[in-house]
Queue: 3 jobs
Job 1
Amino acid sequence: MQNRAILLANLGSPDKPEEGAVRKYLDQFLMDPFVIQLPWFLRKLIVSILVLPKRPKVSAKAYKSIWLTEGSPLIILSERLQQSLQQQLKIPVRMAMRYGKPSIEYQLLKLAKDPAVNEVLFIPMYPHYAESTVRTSIEEARRVIQQHQLNIKLNVIPPFYQQSDYINALVESAQPYLQQNFDHLLFSYHGLPESHITKSDPTGQHCLKQADCCRKTSIAHKNCYRHQVFRTTECFVEQAGLGDSKYSVSFQSRLGQAKWLGPSTEDTIHDLASKGVKRLVVICPAFVTDCLETLEEIEIQAKKHFIEAGGISLVLIPCLNDHPAWVKILTKWCQQSEWNNNI
């Protein structure tokens, strides 16, 4: 423990809620081969011709609607978590972003200058495995260590989607909202193209190719985002004591024309409103930190659509952010000696 440092890694944010900054951020994000899983030329064609001419203006407007006086909500909330965790630990705690600032490279190079540090406990801030989140973050950290020949051992915390500590913290943070009068709880997870799911299946014959595949035991579940979000939901529901008719699962944040995991959150909230749900509560367990996808996509846009469809209220349960229960669990994990690095 004495020679260890902690590096938390989240997705990232543009520097400013302005078109130019958003364009730069989207270009870096979408050109990642783990995000758009196509050859470089096709990826460049899609990003340059179909996305960057129009998307930055739309996204900049969305960012402006949630931007804090201090800056990006994702960055500010991540810094608060880092500071809270640092208060509990006597070893260095840093926060990095896969895209944007501060980068994984910047933080690793900074940590490598400390002669007391020869191990970094790397914590991708994603409960569920996906190549576009967990793997790309780990590969970037490994690239930096190899390229700069850093004398650092990388110890990685694996996806924690059904880890009891995480589930307990998630339920505890949600309790004040679950104790209020509501009709239905919607678990809205970030979506993925179905091709990402099938590509991560080592058997090539299980994911999305067998009926009820996420409930049938398979080695594919180790890297299956869809299975893992369903497991998180099952664990949460059991811990919180929710009835089967009291919740639903959907997927948000679709981009492009590929077939994505469904049902979509937008379709689901309209369907719930049409069935008489008036008071909807939404939780987004794919994120541990509130960001554009929760604060704008759910709390602003989804709320608007739900009320237009006949609902009375839509309440977003905040992400774990720097909730004391989450800080306590991270502190415990950071003090654990070894983690499975076979990711």
Job 2
Amino acid sequence: MRVLSRRLRTLFIAVAVAGPLPATARSDPAADFYRGKTITILIGVGAGGEYDLQARLVAKYLGRYIPGNPTLVAQNMTGASGLKMINYLATVAPHDGTYMGMIQNGLPALQAVGLDGVQFDAAQFSWLGAMAPVVETIAVWHAASITTVEGARQKEIVTGATARGSITYTFPQMMNELFSTKFKLVTGYTGGNEINLAMERGEIEARNNTWSSWKATRPDWLREHKIAIIAQSSPPAPDLDAPLVNDLAGNDEQRRIVDLVFSGCALGRPLAITPDVPPDRVAILRAAFDQAVKDPEFLADARAANFDVDPIHGVDMQKTIGRILDVPPALAAKAKHLLD
């Protein structure tokens, strides 16, 4: 026993002198998990629009900053303006940190008002980040000869949208109900790029889109005055001279409905991971996003694509989700038909 005790003391002393094991010898469970893995980023609308372009830009850089350097693949999953995709993430996709989505920012509000078909709980997702907040707009094609909200009250304007429940439908429909405009909604388009093509072909005369998307996807339309922006959500874009929808509201109830409809603007084009992902993986994905959007090459690509970069952090987005879901029942009841 004395010999064994001396040997143990000698071993302990040797370890203490040597110090802790080098970092390369220590195991990082999150890095070990992601090493050799593929992360799929789902996009709930068609190719060519702002959601699609931003998701692919983020996918290009995010893997650089995830320990283990997994491969990232962006994939479109269209249907019901992103509802199909988020339901898939909530109910079918693995909840291990290998599936994420660039979520349509209006979907949490749909949950808040009790939309039929919602199979997800936005509060259970872990929100990772977004490139920047967004400003929603209504734009009218030049051939319609409408350049103001008042003009939209005088003449019916055929307006393209993806589906009921999407902001492309909700924004113009809200304008009709609250402010007496005459947008005639045509649904069924898979995404913003298809709606834009329909405008060029003369099938429709107007659409909702974000200001950042117009600058990124159709800068020539702005330069050549092919569209007139007749209204924007608040806070206003500093480089856009268009009336605020909030200023059209004539009473508190209308203002509260407007705020709910545009609640997703504070989320930008949000990236979120499925529910039930271990906290250490969520932490490294959030940190990776924060690093990726500061990468000089990422910033250069964003500038080239005319995307604004004013990052929203995942922890702040999680708080925003909580506020959106905490809608008073009376307001939810009044707004549901607009969002449904």
Job 3
Amino acid sequence: MKIAIISDQHFGFKKGSKIYHDFFLKFYEEVFFPVIDKLGITTIVDMGDTFDSRKGIDFGALAWAKDNYYDPLAQRNITIHTIVGNHTAYYKNTNEVNAVDLLLREYDNVKIYAEAEEVKLGNLNTLFIPWINSDNSQSTYKTIKQSDCRIAMGHLELNGFRAHRGHIMEDGHDAKIYEKFDKVFSGHYHTRSDDGRIFYLGNPYQMFWSDVNDKRGFVIFDTETLEHKYLNNPNELYKIVRYNNTPRQTFKYQDYAGKIVKLIVEQRDSHKEYEKFVDGFDKVDLVDLNIVDQTVNIADAELNVDEFEDTLSILDKYVDELEFSLSKSTLKSILRETYQEACNVT
């Protein structure tokens, strides 16, 4: 039996921003639904953070999620096993009150897992592991220890894996406890990484500048062979353009319509030609254009392009340069969570 695994969909991102949800919709309409229809998928595992904010959701975003995702799945009679993640748990110390349970009770095909539980997928017993916190950690680790499942799926925060580009988690839970499983699939980190046994599958689409050039999508998993395959989302929202006296006459501006573009100026011999090149973006409907001019020296210091590619990388580098006795990885995690919450402030 083949099932689909998806994680970290973050419905309601940026308070239901139309720009982002239109971008999300391209994935569902052009990639996700066509694949599950073609393969005859009847079961989906959602590994957490289905909704973006633990504190609430914009009504428009909730209607969008139901109209464009949950209703189409209900019409297809597809069962959705939904694991509670940290963004969908209202309190940080318990999963008891959570968004997916409260918002999706009308759907008989949606099954919610707030505690660790063994579930049969086809003929395969699978251990579902929701977000681990102070309230459920003892019972969760007891369930993990007693389980004889070959496969585990959850929303885990493990050390040694890539949380986002340039940041390997040094804190978090020890991965050794999962050595008993043949494979472990997890959500939570938005970028893909694995150690051959534990697989962070990443989220379906770009949401931050730190996602640029990273592969996104979902997974098809065979419960008989235990093989899994990534299905990539070809759509991109963030694009980087490097200007090196680039001739505007041959530049394909139309490829950037509907994108958030960062223009990095590396060489500019003619200011007039450069201005005309930039003006060319006015002919297409960009979401936003940010310009990083590397030809200008600031305090005689050379600029590093990577420092400008995303806010999270800048924050990580700042923390790395600090001198104090506290855990830098913990501070990075706090800053990452704060930044993601700030993205929802309008």
